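Weekly sync, protein design subgroup
Attendees: M.S., D.O., the rotation student, P.L. (late)

Item 1: inverse folding check
M.S. brought a backbone from last month's batch and wanted to see whether the design step gives back something sensible before we order anything. D.O. pointed out we never logged the input encoding, so this time it goes straight into the notes. Structure tokens as presented (303 positions):
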């Protein structure tokens, strides 16, 4: 077909066609056809303010009191080795060419189970009156049968005692109040720092039975390095070894080690508990291993 441009012979028709073509070519540039309704001015997008974080790691090699502050009512998911198991661990880790220590806890174990742990207010607990200086509580054992009572100030993080979660559980009530708070952490936490803290309990109750004893905690900040977990990597983690000696008034003394990996603002991100009587600092078989982790069972799993 012979298309003839002289179909549009009038000058006004040519201008109209030209304007339409031009608008089609530069539409994104904002071309407005003659006599079109103008687009009203619109307000520029204003984003919501970003809520400031209460704690931001500064990776200065030290952990201060405000970098190990409790946050009440915030659940933390941890993977935990099954009760009665014998999980393997590598506490020595590796040291790279730059003299940086690395621990690799990233392996997943299909046998691992999951718990949620959170700090809660002491008020309203059945044992609250026994701890007038207590500030908050945290689940003490993986089964949730006991709770540890804590306080914190600018100088330290203290364990005040232990109580059963229920006042009269099937296994019997527990209420241990230390006459002198045990200093779990003395601030600032930094490599090489060590201390000993002793707590004595009298007229206490352990699983429904009268109890008295002395607990000695020897704490050492042994190393700082990178910790790899299944879902997170922490570049500057403090490895804190706590050797616990329990000396009851009746019965044999019992010793145990707890290795805590602590990161600024996150708190304890991994924990390794030795078998009782363990004497090797770098034991490879543990009683329990906990790690900060995503729940692998899927969304909506009941913990």
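Designed sequence read out in the meeting:
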């Amino acid at each position: 077909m012979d298309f003839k441009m002289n179909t549009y012979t009038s000058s006004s028709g040519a201008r109209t066609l030209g304007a339409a073509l031009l608008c089609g070519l530069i539409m994104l540039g904002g071309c407005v056809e003659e006599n079109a309704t103008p687009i009203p001015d619109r307000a520029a997008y204003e984003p919501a303010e970003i809520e400031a974080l209460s704690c931001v790691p500064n990776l200065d090699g030290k952990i201060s009191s405000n970098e190990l502050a409790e946050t009440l009512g915030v659940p933390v998911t941890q993977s935990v080795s099954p009760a009665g198991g014998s999980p393997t661990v590598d506490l020595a880790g590796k040291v790279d060419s730059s003299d940086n220590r690395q621990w690799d806890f990233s392996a997943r174990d299909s046998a691992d189970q999951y718990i949620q742990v959170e700090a809660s207010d002491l008020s309203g607990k059945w044992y609250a009156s026994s701890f007038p200086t207590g500030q908050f509580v945290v689940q003490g054992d993986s089964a949730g049968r006991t709770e540890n009572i804590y306080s914190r100030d600018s100088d330290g993080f203290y364990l005040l005692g232990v109580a059963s979660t229920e006042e009269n559980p099937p296994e019997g009530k527990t209420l241990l109040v230390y006459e002198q708070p045990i200093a779990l952490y003395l601030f600032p936490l930094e490599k090489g720092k060590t201390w000993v803290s002793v707590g004595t309990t009298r007229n206490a109750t352990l699983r429904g039975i009268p109890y008295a004893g002395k607990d000695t905690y020897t704490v050492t900040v042994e190393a700082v390095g990178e910790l790899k977990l299944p879902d997170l990597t922490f570049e500057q983690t403090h490895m804190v070894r706590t050797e616990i000696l329990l000396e009851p008034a009746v019965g044999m003394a019992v010793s145990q080690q707890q290795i805590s990996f602590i990161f600024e603002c996150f708190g304890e991100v991994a924990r390794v508990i030795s078998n009782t009587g363990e004497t090797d600092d770098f034991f490879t078989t543990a009683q329990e291993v906990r790690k900060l982790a995503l729940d692998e069972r899927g969304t909506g799993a009941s913990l």
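Discussion: The radius of gyration is 31 Å. The CA atoms of residues 19 and 33 lie 7 Å apart.
Action: P.L. to compare against the previous round before Friday.
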